[in-house]
Amino acid sequence: MTKVVKILGTGCPKCKSMTGVVQDVVTENNIDATIEKVEDIMEIMKFNVMTTPALVIDDVITIKGRVPSKGEVLTLLS
């Protein structure tokens, strides 16, 4: 089943770093996932997230306010 991964962030350097980490993990591990960047502040607020970047997997907020390691992302997606 395809996982839906959303990266919430307004385009700051940390948000870009998180996007890169997530894309690398998905590619390197052949994970079936769609990655969506959510940069609209109104959409981000729907998740009740005040600190970005935030990582949402299948509509569950898993990480917020920091850039995760590749290992951490892999664990969350496995």
What does this structure look like?
Residues 5-77 form the Thioredoxin-like fold domain. The active site is at residues 12, 15. With 78 residues, the protein is an alpha+beta fold. The chain starts with a strand and ends with a helix. The longest helix is centred in the first third of the chain and has 16 residues, at 13-28. The chain has a single domain, classed as Glutaredoxin, CATH 3.40.30. It is globular, with a radius of gyration of 11 Å. The chain has helices at residues 13-28, 41-46, 70-77, and strands spanning 3-8, 33-38, 54-57, 60-64. Strand 3 (54-57) and strand 4 form a beta hairpin.
**CATH architecture tag:** 3-Layer(aba) Sandwich
**Which class in CATH terms?**
Alpha Beta
Number of domains: 1
Provide the CATH topology: Glutaredoxin
Task: Describe the strand arrangement of the main beta sheet, using strand numbers.
Answer: 2-1-3-4
**Which shape, going by the Cα principal axes?**
globular
The CATH homologous superfamily is named Glutaredoxin
If you average the pLDDT, what whole number results? Answer: 96
Strand content: 25-35%
Total helices: the number is 3
Uncertain segments: none
Counting DSSP E segments of at least 2 residues, the number of strands comes to 4
Distance between the termini: 12 Å
Helix share bin: 25-40%
Radius of gyration: 11 Å
